[in-house]
Structure formats: C-alpha cells, structure tokens
Fold this protein.
Amino acid sequence: MHIGILTDFPTATVRSGLAIHTHFLRQGMLKRGHRVCLVGPDTSDVVALGSEETHLFPGLAYPTYPRVKIAMPGDPRKMIGDAPPVDILHGQTNTLMVWYGGWMRKMFGIPVLNTHTVHLPTHSHFILSDGMYQKQSVRDWAYRTSQDLEFDYAEAYNQGDGLIVQSRHFVQYWRDRGVTVPIHVVGRPIDPKKFDAQPTYDPFPQHFKVGKRIIVVSRHDREKNLERMLEIFAHGIAPNDPDVTLTMVGDGHGHYNLCKLADSLPHSDRVFMPGEVGHDQLVNWYAHADIFAYTSLSETFGNVVGEALWSGLPVVALDDKMGVAGQVIDRVNGALIAPEPRATADQQFAMACLGLLNNRSLRRETAESAATLARRTAHPDAVLTRFEGIYAQATARCKADVRKPLIQRSKARQYAAWMEMARKWAFWNALLVVSCKAMNKLGGARVESDSQHARVEMEISRNDGSGAGLITVARQRSLDRPAA
C-alpha cells in the first residue's frame, strides 16, 4: 500500500510528540513493506530534505516559531495534475490543511482518515503574549474561538472515512461536535530500540538521592500547567520529605518564566531544570528517576507519559478526562487525581507522590504494572497492525461511497471543488499567520523560545554561574552532570 501521511512536519524541524510519532509511523510502515509519502508544508529552508518521499505545499513561517510552517494551497492546475498517487491519506495535522484530505477523496476517490492531534481550546493561548495572557477576557475569547473552530474540524472530518482519536474519552467528545464517520481509538507507539536500551549514565545531580527523585519531561509552555507542578512540590511535597527532589526536563516558550518562578518558591535548592535533552537520552533520565509526575490538562495523548510507563515509572497525574486519563489507571500503573477543587487536588497529588516514594514495595508493584501494560498497548506491532486494519475499513468505505470521483467529471466541477477546499483551508491558516504578525508588530505576540533561553543564559552570565540567579540551569549544570 502507498500511504500518504498529511503532516505539518514533513521534515524534522521540531521535536514535538506529534512530529516524533509521525516519523516513527513512517518508519514502521516502511518496515512492513508499504511505501510512505509525507504530505505537508515545504520546510526545506529550515531542515534539508532527506531520503523521505514527500509532496510539499508552499509554507508560511509561524511568526514566533519560524521553524514551524503553515501549509497553503498552491496552483490548482498543479494540485490537480500532480497529486500524490497514494492509496490512502492519513491526516496527522492540527491545521485546516485537513480540508485537503476531503478534497483528495472527492477528486480521486482516495480513502481518507484523520487523527485528532491537538485539543484546540487548551492550546488557544499560543498566540497570546504574556501581557495579553494575564487578561481573563482575552483568554476567554481565545478559548471560545477555538471551541467554535472545532465544529469546522468536525465538518472536515466528516468528509473522510474515519476519525482516529488517541483516547476513549474523545469518542463522545467528537460525537457531541457533530462527527458522524466511524471513530477509532488508537494510542501512539513507543520505540523499543530507544526505551529498552540500557542506560549509560546517571544524569541527575549527584546529591539528588536515589529513591526520592520526581521527574517531569515536557515542553515548557502554558498548557503543560508546570507552574502548578512547581507549587505542589514547593508547598506540598518538599516540606514533608527533606530528601525528595524535582527535575523538570524540557524547554520552550515558558522556560524563563518557569525558572523565575522556581527561584521564588521555597525549596528551590531541590529543583533542577537541565533544559532539553536528546530523545535518545531520555532512557537515562527515566531509568534513574523514581516516579513521573504530570499536571498537564491539555493532552490528546501524552507521549512522555507513555515513555515513562514503558520505562517502568509509576505516573502521578491530574485526571484530564482526555489523553492522560486513557493511559494512567488509578492504583494500577499510577495515580489519577481529580484536578478540582484546587487546594484539595494539590494536597492529594502531593500525598500520592510521597506515598509512592516512601513505599518501595508499592512503587515496585506499580512500576511492574506500568511496564507490562505499556508493552501490551503501545508496542509498535500492536499499533501498526491496528492502523492497517483501519486502512482496510476506510478503503472499503470510500470505494462504496465515491462511485465516480471528480477527476472523471468536468473541469468546471473539479475547479469548483478546488475553490471550496482552498477557501476553507487557506482562510483560517492565513488569518492565523497575519494575526500573529500583526500582534508581533504591536508587541502582543509570544516571545520566541530561543529568546527565552537567551534571557536565561544572560542572567546566568550576569551572576557568573554562582546559582544566585536562575537556579536550575546555573546550579551545577557543568559540575554535577557527567558526560554522556
């Protein structure tokens, strides 16, 4: 089968969970004898194209994250005459490029599946500057706008042959928004080569006591709710056990703000933020940690949660009723804590962490369950076999539904369908880019993540690496971490 993957990341421009999963899916299908074509925006000016088979559209750089491109329709004559000759199109995009899939189905009779990849309402803050984000009315407007946009996505999903969600909690969620096509639940696989590998060194600061290490691996951004994790540690965990430490691996737009918050809270001497590490190095962090903690309420699927579980780490998480709740089973492979009321939830979260850290036999039992269940549900063979079955169902559905594709009809009908698709695809994508550029000019856009790191490094340099400023990167960054 020739599989087209509709993606925002045809080249490895970022290391998001979705980008990693897309390229892992490609590799898995190639190993099974399929051909794979990555379909999406042209990012070759950011990362040179490799050996991947691609079909690329013009891409507009996201103003505050230029490594990410927003795909736009090209010349209709080229799109009709030079469409990728795939047998099925599997959408893994969180932009309205999703409409392209529906057009391909009408135009060429190609079966189409879409995957719900991003929960838009909890990511609606992404274009807001720190100042604008402080205004509740602005946050509410962005949230409502994203909720309305989900109905456009539901309409687009109904143009295909099925919707793939990554947690059972999203089945009714999308039915309520009007999705009528078949909905399939498939999580993301874990790469055994990376996470069954033997760890090579202990990356934690040497004075962080074994048996008392909490780890969080996450992009440092607002929707990850990491401020809450820092506050739970400072007020609920650290005061009750003098040996427990918190390590937060990752970077992002919120990195500087998180470092400043950590500095301001009690027990900051037991917090470590090493920054971003290579994906193939995470096995060392998971292997030498004791529990994984997660306070995000925005996940369609928690890649890092799956990695931690596979690595035998019990997971303590807030019950998001979304992606993470589909991965963590309370009192089996970790603990799920209702997120509200806030004070009670934070106390329960802290007690769950301490309970696992201070009960070695419970931690070992939970760790064994975590690893066993992850191998049963997240092994690539299980996930890829599931996809192949869904592809067969989608192919049969499309064949029965699209008796005469538009390519066999008049040019007028073909161009009318293209215009309808391009209008829906291009309008919202262009509006997003234009709005972000305007906000950038007016000082209302996000600060780039690279600028966040520059601010961290500048303050570290100003303090001469003494640890008096931004704690976690400055403190023992070069002293405590052994070479890989």
Q: What stands out?
A: The chain has two domains: 2-189+380-441, 192-378+466-474. DSSP finds 17 helices and 15 strands in the chain. The radius of gyration is 23 Å.
